[in-house]
């Protein structure tokens, strides 16, 4: 271990001082050596003199240069048994000795013994030694715990700066549904394995690859797969670890990370969750010169500091590319950017196949069908889905996962755990009307997604649920579709109001109203779907850190703000009127479906549409896929 002597000396000084003090008895007073004469009781000097006068004292042993005496006394007060009593004597030992001699008491004096002095010395030495040992241990711990041979003796060591050797575990085969990203990383592996192919034609190998995409889409997994495939050293650290331990350590961690990487080139440096350090500078609360900013500056410096062809490739992952500092994205740093999207139907099928490999699926199950029914699921959701299904299967003591477990697991992943049903009563009726309100509007509006099922079985926070089957991975949504969604989302409240009256409406619509407001606001401020005109007035206000978008709402004038508000109100009010109209017009069928729903708890799409079509003519059922819209 190579020590930095400056730090060692700096740290040993206080320790030596403590050790020396202990030794000298400054902190812990030296103990009186009383030999074997351990006396349990004590008495005062005055009482001792009284005992002496009475002739009860038989023997006195002096210790501690005559300051302490162990007295053997016998008398009626002591139960006529010889007892050993400890007495603290005044300073004038000579006087005591004279007294004792006059009284003809046995007298002996005991100097401190050499052997006990030795043990005292040793026992005084132990605590400082222990302390020094503990501190050395602390230093080693805070250093690289893997005990790499050239770890320097300093605090700035990321504890998880571990070198991951090509793991046999994860390869590109374990990552599915993100083919473009995979291709990109296969190339990165080639850069590291055969750089000549590129350098011989004058190509500069990129320094950094930024991997971005929503959570759970397999970014970390991809990076691990690169490590598995590349067969080069792989240094992995998570952005949050840079800022985790001590203030002022982040920057030195970055320095160490790159120092280590340079020593081990060719290699890969993987920085997970880079947004934790790489956030836009100068936007935080409390000034710009904070810990994180220094860490980021160091990172930028290090990335500029090595040449493109030294064989180090930095891979960073984030799901918040919008808040990253633009300096990170400049060419010469993370000049390659790879996006991983939430997988489409084909991608989901591939991911499901990967995760189904080690699970026992019933033969009747079609992976393709599951993939079709799970739009919007990320890779992590799908892995979770299959795992939940497997757990459920085990709980039901079945030998293979069947479609029914898959079904419940999909519902569970989307909407949370199943709760126990409400007891029959007014609230249950109200929830039933609320849900049927959503469902009937969803069914009758031409542009709305098909109803999948209506249920009164609670899940997560929701007391009842209406499931809709959206169009396959729809990218573009029309104005009519958004309006239809708003009307259907208001259907629950509309039904409550019509059936139970204005004063009986409940808080159950809170979630719906939130969605409605969001959709209406976006129609006005982002999609140009109102009389305000085709203007984009607000960015995605998704920054929880008061970051860049702070103050974006002042991009328009007061007048426009008022106009926006009135347009939102106009949209929501006209949609609500439409919802009320549809509920009113279909009151008869709604009553009937509610009765059935209360009895059966769940009404599936076919039955629902059949019932509705006995009174009107709703659109035909399309494909069966589920996603939750309303609660
Ligand atoms: P991210 O880092 O993007 O948030 P992870 O890589 O940590 O997501 O993914 C979490 C888990 O989800 C993985 O361990 C894996 O089991 C599963 N997963 C996610 N994406 C995929 C994918 N494309 N292929 C296979 N499994 C995936
Ligand atoms: Mg991750
Ligand atoms: Zn609702």
Automatic annotation (TrEMBL):
Main subcellular location: membrane
UniProt-annotated catalytic positions: 435
GO cellular component: chloroplast thylakoid membrane; plasma membrane
PROSITE patterns given in the database record: AAA
Binding site for Zn(2+): 434, 438, 512
E.C. designation(s): 3.4.24.-
Annotated localization: Cell membrane; Membrane
Membrane topology of the entry: Multi-pass membrane protein
Quaternary state and interactors: Homohexamer.
Job of this protein: Acts as a processive, ATP-dependent zinc metallopeptidase for both cytoplasmic and membrane proteins. Plays a role in the quality control of integral membrane proteins.
Entry similarity comment: Belongs to the AAA ATPase family. In the N-terminal section; belongs to the AAA ATPase family.
Name the record gives this protein: ATP-dependent zinc metalloprotease FtsH
Lineage, broadest ranks: Eukaryota, Rhodophyta, Stylonematophyceae, Stylonematales, Stylonemataceae
């Amino acid at each position: 271990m190579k020590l930095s002597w400056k730090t060692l000396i700096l740290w040993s000084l206080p320790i030596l001082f403590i050790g020396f003090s202990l030794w000298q008895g400054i902190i812990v007073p030296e103990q009186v050596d009383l030999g074997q004469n351990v006396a349990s009781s004590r008495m005062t000097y005055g009482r001792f003199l009284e005992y002496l006068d009475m002739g009860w004292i038989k023997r006195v042993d002096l210790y501690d240069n005559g300051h302490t005496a162990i007295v053997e006394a016998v008398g009626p007060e002591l139960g006529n048994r010889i007892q050993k009593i400890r007495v603290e004597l005044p300073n004038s030992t000579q006087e005591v000795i004279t007294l004792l001699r006059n009284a003809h008491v046995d007298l002996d004096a005991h100097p401190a013994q050499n052997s006990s002095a030795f043990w005292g010395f040793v026992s005084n030495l132990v605590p400082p030694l222990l302390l020094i040992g503990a501190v050395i241990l602390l230093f080693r711990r805070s250093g690289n715990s893997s005990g790499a041979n050239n770890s320097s003796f300093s605090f700035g060591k990321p504890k998880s700066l571990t070198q991951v050797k090509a793991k046999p575990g994860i390869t590109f085969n374990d990552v599915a549904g993100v083919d473009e990203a995979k291709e990109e990383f296969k190339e990165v592996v080639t850069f590291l394995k055969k750089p000549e192919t590129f350098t011989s034609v004058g190509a500069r190998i990129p320094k950094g690859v930024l991997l971005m995409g929503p959570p759970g889409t397999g970014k970390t997994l991809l990076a691990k797969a690169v490590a598995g495939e590349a067969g080069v050293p792989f240094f992995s650290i998570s952005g949050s670890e840079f800022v985790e331990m001590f203030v002022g350590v982040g920057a030195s961690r970055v320095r160490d990370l790159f120092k280590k990487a340079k020593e081990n080139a060719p290699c890969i440096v993987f920085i997970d969750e880079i947004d934790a350090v790489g956030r836009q500078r100068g936007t935080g609360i409390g000034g710009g010169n904070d810990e994180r900013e220094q860490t980021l500056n160091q990172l930028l410096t290090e990335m500029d500091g090595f040449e493109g062809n030294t064989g180090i490739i930095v891979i960073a992952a984030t799901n918040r590319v919008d808040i990253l500092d633009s300096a990170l994205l400049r060419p010469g740093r993370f000049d390659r950017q790879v996006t991983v999207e939430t997988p489409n139907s084909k991608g989901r099928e591939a991911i499901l196949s990967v995760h189904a490999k080690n699970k026992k699926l019933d033969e009747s199950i079609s992976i393709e069908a599951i993939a079709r029914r799970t739009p919007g699921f990320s890779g992590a959701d799908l892995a979770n889905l299959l795992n939940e299904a497997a757990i459920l299967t085990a709980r039901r003591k079945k030998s293979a996962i069947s479609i029914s477990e898959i079904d419940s697991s999909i519902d569970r992943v989307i909407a949370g755990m199943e709760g126990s049903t409400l007891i029959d009563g007014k609230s249950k009726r109200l929830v039933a009307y609320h849900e049927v309100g959503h469902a009937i509007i969803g069914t009758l509006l031409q542009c709305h997604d098909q109803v999948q099922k209506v249920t009164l079985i609670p899940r997560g926070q929701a007391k009842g649920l209406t499931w809709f089957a959206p169009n396959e991975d729809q990218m573009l949504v029309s104005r009519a579709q958004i309006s239809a969604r708003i009307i259907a989302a208001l259907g629950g409240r509309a039904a409550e109001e019509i059936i139970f009256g204005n004063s009986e409406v409940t808080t159950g619509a809170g979630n719906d109203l939130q969605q409605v407001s969001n959709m209406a606001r976006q129609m006005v401020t982002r999609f140009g779907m109102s009389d305000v005109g085709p203007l984009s007035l607000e960015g995605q206000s998704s920054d929880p850190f008061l970051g860049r978008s702070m103050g974006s709402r002042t991009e328009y004038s007061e007048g426009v703000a008022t106009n926006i508000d009135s347009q939102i109100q106009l949209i929501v009010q006209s949609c609500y009127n439409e919802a009320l109209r549809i509920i009113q017009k279909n009151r008869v069928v709604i009553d009937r479906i509610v009765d059935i729903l209360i009895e059966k708890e769940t009404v599936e799409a076919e039955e629902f549409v059949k019932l509705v079509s006995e009174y009107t003519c709703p659109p035909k059922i399309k494909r069966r896929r589920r996603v939750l819209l309303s609660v």
